[in-house]
Design goal:
The complex is a heterotrimer of chains A (125), B (374) and C (505). Chain A has 125 residues and is α/β, with parallel strands linked by helices. Chain A has a single domain, classed as 3-Layer(aba) Sandwich (Rossmann fold). Chain A has 5 helices and 6 strands; from the N terminus they run βαβαβαβαββα. In chain A, strands 2-1-3-4-5 form a 5-stranded parallel β-sheet, with helices on both faces. In chain A, helix 2 runs parallel beside helix 3. The termini of chain A are close together. In chain B, helix 9 runs parallel beside helix 11, helix 14 runs parallel beside helix 16 and helix 17 packs antiparallel against helix 18. Chain C is globular and about 80 Å long. Classes of the chains: A alpha/beta (125), B mainly alpha (374), C alpha/beta (505). The interface between B and C is large, with 52 and 60 residues. Strand 6 of chain A pairs parallel with strand 1 of chain B, so a sheet runs across the interface.
Chain lengths: 125, 374, 505
């Protein structure tokens, strides 16, 4: 079995790069998508062990992506971590209702994120 | 062809030179405008073309630098878990120094990326970003900008410095802060408030002009997002003559759940400004203290529609179950908003079990019935 | 006899000259102030992090109203795009204005919509609402779909007003493509101003269909086709060189139909959208302004020059003609129903601005046409020399071209999306535009006068129907062209209102 596969969906290029570098360094196989639609395409074409997604993205937002992931028999159990901006309680509530596993609000600690990622991947493996 | 051009040339020369003095003033004016517009067209065309070249070149160059910096920063962020910050900075500082950051265009890109990361990450990463910033002496440029005449530049400089938590800034800013700065430009104030840890909200005392909603939002944002600020009791400002400050403090009281402010809030229910009354009621609702329900019901009959509906909202939030009869009486109120809201609240309370009786107003399917037969 | 023609020729040519000089002076002043206003906007928004509003719980909530009729092909994609706008608190209300295709079914299936029982607050009268749908999937919790009988675009918007629960309404044309942070930019002026903003329009930009991928602008290429280029130039000139200045002096009467934000309480208290509103909302804006002035309320109407909304310009002349004629007709109707405001000095600025709108849209083409034709005729028969005619014509022509270039320059200096447009093609278009587009638009102008037939019988019925609902103030403007279909709807509507009242009691 190869490295655990992680999909990062984020529309801010700078942020995406940082996350990609960090997770690669932690020893995962990292795939990136610049928006929700690209993310959906990747999710449909292969299986991921973890999905990290932003909320606010053009065309398909994080919540819809999450809802799609949960409604698909194959990906139903994939853990999803949501990145969001601080202060939007309503979205956090909606996200949990839709079955998000975790929320990380900006600004966040990268080490903390990688610990969370490790936790979820341990569950999967 | 050549003859034709020569002919036209002669014609123009005749009009513009030979016969010009004999024309009436209006025609002369028109002739002048013709020349003016022709040159304007040529100039605009050249201007746009040159501007484009320049922008195009700049965009290309910026993309290259952006890539370079984001790669280094990305590497820096993931560099050595166990290294100390000093070691990381030691390792990366020379790389940045090699870039031509003395050029303002390049520097701007780097600073922008540093700020963006600094806003997104906390903890160690953020510390390293700050060390790099200070190590490269990037703080000297915004410090110079503090002397700028433009409030906008000043605000941007203060924002940058405060985000990077440059030491000794309070004195610097108070030396250069413009006392007459427009309050609409609240950026500067919010940054000031980010810095002064001893009396962070002193600024609220000094604001005289009414703050716009936007200004309130910026200040609110700054206050709740600044880590390590010591939060005072906002009820101190509820007696302020500046209604916008009162509003801001009401929002803050709700956010920090300052229950000790309730007596002051009850006083505000008699405020002459409707907006303040609305917010006072809303905040009372958010504090969810059952004791103020009675007060709200007492003032209800004499209030305007908008406050009435807010009172209902607050009662719904508090939901002690004491006011069911009152809510039920509201379902027959003449105003649609009140009826609707009261019904919704009754329904919600019914669901959550606080409601005892069974004969609530049936609001189900009103639209449905109304359209039967279509 | 010929002496008389000579005198007339002399007089006409000097009239034409002075007329042209005056217009040029006015336009130059407007262009100057527009530039100042654009600069002010840019400075004010430089370095503002629009995402700050996004994360704040105190940013105002917005309802987006999108009416549509038989647009099954695009409606799903549009809803998706609008749902993914960057904003904290908004609701999206899609109004199916009696579509006969399967668009509603498509919506229901793809968003898991279910019929919701909602108490409707009929603040403004509309054709009967058949049902309100909400999604059972929390990911689409912002979406509400209103299904109603056909009543026209304004009627559909009114139904949306009744359903909406927020103070700010964004009325959107379904063909528009919004920038992801459009809402933030639209809301900011409402929050910034200490005077109540009652309406805000945005400068609508043109884009090629091929540059849109997944509902987002990926590139900006030169508008294809001469007609589209003319349209772009004309639009940039009017909004960037004129409307911005009017917005600065708070005398803007032109709020684009494609994208406009309204303050709901004001909108309701002056009676909502009128069933015959067309292209530029002129009637509504004048009505709102009159209401505010009558009640001595300070107010502002603004134009946001930012990149907010994209629209594919009509490529063929027929579509452009319809658009132009609608705009003229909208202005004419709006001004006609407020004729008293137009000549009432108590309205000061409003009177002045509506008078100038009246002049520039409805009178100026007639004057210009008459002057052109008569001068050309007189010159052809030799009563006046060609020289003064040529001088005036070339002055006006050069002025038009330089204004087009100035508008492009403004755009390049500020929002920069025209960067990849071919400059030479734009230049060629601006050289050709006064020669071709102008005469054609004159033709359209005279064409548009035919479609204007008032029907007083329908008017009285409508007014009495509106007054039947006690909360709605009496309509200010008479309504035209109510056809038989709408008569039927009115009766249905009356019935439902009555039914609803019975149920309420």
């Amino acid at each position: 079995m190869g490295l655990p596969k992680i999909l990062v969906v984020e529309d801010e290029a700078l942020m995406l790069k940082a996350l990609e570098f960090r997770l690669k360094k932690d020893g995962y196989d990292v795939y990136t998508a610049k928006d929700g639609l690209e993310g959906m395409e990747q999710i449909n074409s292969q299986r991921f062990d973890l999905i990290i997604t932003d909320i606010m993205m053009p065309y398909i937002g994080g919540l819809e992506l999450l809802s799609n992931v949960r409604n698909n028999r194959e990906t139903r159990d994939t853990p999803v971590i949501i990145l969001s901006v601080m202060g939007i309680e309503q979205i956090v509530l909606q996200g949990f209702e839709l079955g998000a596993d975790d929320f990380v609000t900006k600004p966040f600690n990268l080490s903390e994120l990688s610990i969370r990622v490790r936790k979820y991947l341990k569950q999967v493996v | 062809m050549k003859d034709f051009i020569l002919h036209i040339w002669d014609y123009l020369r005749e009009i513009f030179v030979v016969r010009l003095p004999s024309f009436p003033i209006a025609i002369r004016c028109a002739l002048f405008l013709i020349v003016f517009f022709t040159t304007a067209i040529a100039e605009l065309y050249i201007f746009i073309a040159v501007q484009r070249r320049f922008l195009y070149y700049r965009l290309q160059r910026d993309t290259i630098w952006k890539n370079k910096f984001s790669n280094i920063l990305g590497n820096m962020i993931v560099y050595g878990e166990n290294e100390t910050n000093e070691a990381i900075v030691q390792h990366f500082l020379p790389r940045f120094e090699r870039m031509s950051i003395h050029r303002s265009s390049v520097r701007r890109i780097l600073v922008q990326q540093l700020l963006e990361y600094r806003e997104s990450f906390s903890g160690n990463t953020s510390q390293v970003l700050r060390d790099i910033y200070l190590g490269l002496n990037l703080d000297q440029y915004p410090k110079k900008k503090l002397r700028s005449r433009l409030a906008k530049d000043k605000a941007a400089a203060i924002r940058e410095l405060s985000l990077m938590q440059v030491p000794g800034l309070v004195d610097l800013i108070s030396a250069y802060a413009d006392k007459s700065v427009d309050v609409a430009n609240v950026d500067a104030y919010s940054a000031l408030l980010r810095l002064d840890k001893v009396n962070p909200l002193g600024v609220l005392n000094t604001i005289q002009q009414p703050l716009s909603d936007w200004g309130q939002l910026m200040l609110f944002d700054a206050i709740i997002k600044t880590p390590g600020i010591n939060i005072p009791a906002f009820s101190t400002w509820l007696a302020s003559a500046n209604d916008s400050i009162v509003l801001l403090c009401l929002k803050l009281i709700a956010h920090f759940q300052q229950h000790e402010a309730i007596p002051m809030l009850l006083n505000l229910l008699a405020h002459q400004n409707v907006e303040v009354r609305v917010w006072a009621v809303r905040v009372l609702g958010k504090l969810e203290d059952p004791l103020c329900e009675g007060e709200l019901v007492t003032i209800y009959p004499n209030e305007s529609l908008i406050v009435k509906s807010e009172i209902l909202g607050a009662l719904g939030k508090i939901a002690s179950g004491e006011q069911i009869d009152f809510l039920r009486s509201c379902t027959t109120a003449p105003e649609f908003e009140i009826r609707n809201k009261a019904r919704e609240l009754l329904k919600a309370q019914e669901k959550s079990g606080t409601m005892l009786s069974n004969n609530t107003v049936d609001s189900n399917g009103v639209l449905h019935h109304a359209l039967n037969g279509f | 006899m010929s002496g008389m023609f000579h005198t007339i020729g002399q007089i006409l040519s000097s009239v034409a000259l002075y007329y042209a000089l005056c217009l040029i002076a006015v336009y130059a002043v407007l262009a100057f102030f527009s530039g100042l206003e654009m600069k002010r906007y840019i400075l004010r928004n430089k370095g503002v992090k629009h995402r700050d509003i996004l994360s704040s719980p105190h940013a105002p909530s917005v309802s987006i109203l999108v009416p549509f009729n038989n647009q099954a092909a695009i409606v799903l994609e549009k809803v998706r795009l609008l749902l993914s706008l960057h904003y904290n608190d908004f609701e999206l209300i899609i109004i199916n204005d009696g579509s006969t295709d399967n668009s509603l079914k498509k919506l229901i299936n793809s968003f898991n919509l279910q019929r919701a029982d909602v108490l409707l607050n009929e603040r403004v009268a509309t054709a009967a609402v058949k049902g309100i749908y909400r999604s059972s999937d929390p990911a689409f919790s912002r979406l509400t779909v209103v299904d109603k009988l056909n009543g026209g675009r304004c009627d559909a918007l009114n139904a949306g007003v009744n359903v909406s629960g927020n103070e700010l309404l964004l009325c959107l044309n379904i063909n528009c493509m919004l920038e992801p942070d459009a809402l933030l930019r639209m809301v900011k002026p409402f929050m910034e101003s200490r005077i109540q903003v009652i309406a805000a329009g945005a400068v609508v930009r043109s884009i090629n269909a091929s540059d849109i991928v997944r509902g987002q602008a990926v590139a900006f290429s030169t508008p294809r086709g001469l007609q589209a280029k003319f349209q772009v130039l004309r639009h940039l000139r009017s909004s960037l060189l004129r409307h911005m200045a009017l917005s600065r002096f708070n005398s803007l009467l032109h709020v684009s139909r494609a994208v406009a934000m309204f303050h709901k309480p004001t909108l309701i208290s002056c009676g909502g959208f009128m069933p015959e509103c067309v292209e530029n909302n002129a009637e509504l804006v004048i009505r709102m302004k009159r209401y505010m002035i009558d009640n001595l309320l300070p107010h502002r109407i603004i134009l946001i020059p930012d990149k907010i909304c994209w629209l594919i310009p009509p490529g063929n002349p027929a579509a452009a003609a319809v658009q132009y004629q609608n705009s003229i007709r909208g202005t004419a109707d709006g001004l006609r129903s407020h004729a008293r405001a137009l000549f009432n000095p108590t309205y000061k600025w409003l009177a002045l601005s509506s008078a100038s709108m009246f002049f520039s849209k409805l009178i100026a083409p007639v004057i210009e046409f008459t002057l052109c034709v008569s001068l050309l005729g007189l010159a052809a028969f030799g009563y006046i020399g060609w020289q003064p005619v040529l001088i005036v014509a070339s002055m006006v022509y050069l002025f038009c071209v330089s204004m087009s270039l100035l508008a492009i320059a403004y755009e390049e200096l500020t929002f920069r999306y025209t960067l990849n447009f071919s400059l030479s093609k734009l230049f060629a278009a601006s050289i050709l535009e006064p020669l071709f587009y102008y005469p054609v638009s004159l033709m359209w102008f005279f064409g548009s006068r035919k479609g204007n037939v008032a029907q007083p019988a329908a008017t009285s019925l409508h007014v009495s129907m509106v007054t039947a609902e006690p909360q709605v103030p009496i309509a200010v403007a008479p309504v035209k062209n109510l056809n038989a279909d709408k008569f039927a709807n009115c009766e249905i509507r009356n019935l439902t209102i009555r039914n609803r009242q019975v149920l309420d009691e």
